[in-house]
């Protein structure tokens, strides 16, 4: 008769972590789906995906892609319509992406020779994603 597997390592003490709220789970799934659609669009346009959901102490970059000598940092926004997605790209989000890109360049010094670009891809249900190349620059 087979025995039940016991967990490895010490048992966690303290209260159990509460389950995430259903609306947060739905938002997380929507974000992953939107990022996948955005990555497919970039690949179709000849980009190579270097990283997805790249985390830094100052924030996350949704997609890092390369095409020829271009290094592209992409912010993906998913909303019910494309206009709402465009409005969701705030100045604070732009600053976060620029700061996170500096961490990328510090860890990938060869990329400092590339042409750096900040793009936005807007995603809405039932619509083709909208790619806005060079949506903003790194000036603060």
Describe this structure in words.
- There is one protein chain.
- The protein is an alpha+beta fold and 140 residues long.
- It has one domain (22-136): Trna Endonuclease, Chain: A, domain 1 (3-Layer(aba) Sandwich), CATH 3.40.1350.10.
- It is 33% helix and 31% strand.
- A five-stranded mixed sheet has the order 1-2-3-4-5, sandwiched between helices.
- The radius of gyration is 19 Å and the shape is globular.
- The mean pLDDT is 85.
Q: Can you lay out the helices and strands and say which pair or pack?
A:
Elements: H1 22-44, E1 48-56, E2 59-67, E3 70-78, H2 82-87, H3 91-107, E4 115-123, E5 130-136
Parallel strand pairs: 3-4
Antiparallel strand pairs: 1-2, 2-3, 4-5
Characterize this entry briefly.
By secondary structure, this protein is α+β, with helices and mostly antiparallel strands. The chain is built from 3 helices and 5 strands, in the order αβββααββ.
Rounded average pLDDT: 85
How would you sum up the major sheet? 5 strands, mixed
Provide the number of structural domains. Answer: 1
- The poorly predicted ranges are none
